[in-house]
Structure formats: C-alpha cells, structure tokens
Amino acid sequence: MKRPIGISIISYYYIYGAFILFITSIFYESHINEIGISDRFGLTHVPEQFMRLVVASITLIIIYGYMKLKKWGFWLMIVYSILFGTISLVLTLTYNQQPYIGNMIWSFIVLLYTLYTHKSFKHRKGCESKADSNYVIR
C-alpha cells in the first residue's frame, strides 16, 4: 500500500526533531532551557545529554515502523503522541508558555491523523480478509 502523504510529513518532521536532539545532546548548554527533557519526564536524576539521546533514538525506531506502515509503528506512534501530548498539557497548565501549547496541539493532530489513517498500516500475515483469501485468478 502506498504511504499517505501525511504520514510522510509527520515522519520527516520527527526525523528532523530527532536529528536536532542528537545535535543538541553533543552541544548541550544547560542554561539555555529552563526545563530540560529529563525534567519533562520527571527524571531529574538522569543526565540531560543521555536523555536527549534516548528520546531521539526511540523516536527514530518509532518513525521507522510508522513510515513502513507497520502495525507496531502505528501503536507506538499512538502511545508516543499521547505521552508527549500529556506532558505538554501538564507543562502548559503549569507554565502557560506557547511552545508547550504548540507541542500539545501538534501531538493531538498527529494522534487524530494516525487514527484516521489506521487502515494504511499492515496487518500480520494470516489476517487478510476473506475477500482477499477467496480471490482466485481464473
């Protein structure tokens, strides 16, 4: 099945974000961000550079499955969108800053679009519909 354009756009956006996280983990300056990634996840004891690498790596794994239209990519993107949307909602309510509001809205859009395109994601072998399995070339 051909990948919907929205999935490609979302995927490339997240690939760009992961690339930025990798770069900023190398050139990290703690005084720039008021709230780091570790703090956003409630893991204040985890070094910020390490947390950026972990989030970027997990994002790339999720995006691989998402771009390949794998079922696990679909479900991980759902979990990822809910997790980051919830974190952004909590930060929005706590700090009322635009970046958190924008992140929350983006997560909501990605979640809705992913749910809307759920039929694009591949099923496991053996889960084909009866119409497909009864099709015979004569």
Keywords:
138 residues, mainly alpha, 6 helices, 68% helix, 0% strand, globular, disordered C terminus
Describe this protein's structure.
The chain is an all-alpha fold and about 140 residues long. The chain has one domain (about 5-125). It is about 70% helix and about 0% strand. The chain is built from six helices and no strands. It has helices spanning about 5-25, 35-40, 50-65, 70-95, 100-115, 130-135. Helix 1 runs antiparallel to helix 3 (about 50-65) and helix 4 (about 70-95) packs antiparallel against helix 5 (about 100-115). The longest helix is centred in the middle third of the chain and has 25 residues, at about 70-95. The relative contact order is 0.13. Keywords: Membrane, Transmembrane, Transmembrane helix.
Question: How do the helices and strands line up, and which of them pair or pack?
Answer:
Layout: H1 5-26, H2 37-40, H3 48-67, H4 71-95, H5 98-116, H6 130-133
Helix pairs in contact: 1-3, 3-4, 4-5
Transmembrane segments: 12-30, 50-67, 74-94, 100-116
Keywords: Membrane, Transmembrane, Transmembrane helix
